[in-house]
Amino acid sequence: MEELAITVTIADRPYKLRIERKQEELVRSAAKSIEEQMKHYATHFEYKDKQDLLAMVALQFTTSNIEKEHELNFMNQEMLKKLLEIDAVLSKKV
Known about the structure:
The protein has helices at residues 24-44, 50-93, and strands at residues 3-10, 13-20.
């Protein structure tokens, strides 16, 4: 694993990170997405400071992540059911 030192800026603060080279694009994209969502919230809602914006972005991303996890778990369960049904049909044919 080759590590890389990068700096990303979130809420006007630079953060120095050491990451695997293969994660650079993902980490930079995540930081950019946070900044874009903060700008969106800043233009659409009142806020006292950037902490409020960060909290809303964190809530939005975490909610989305949990929703995706639930969808993935549901799909995995449905796929397992279907595979078991196929296995049962194939077992009867043999």
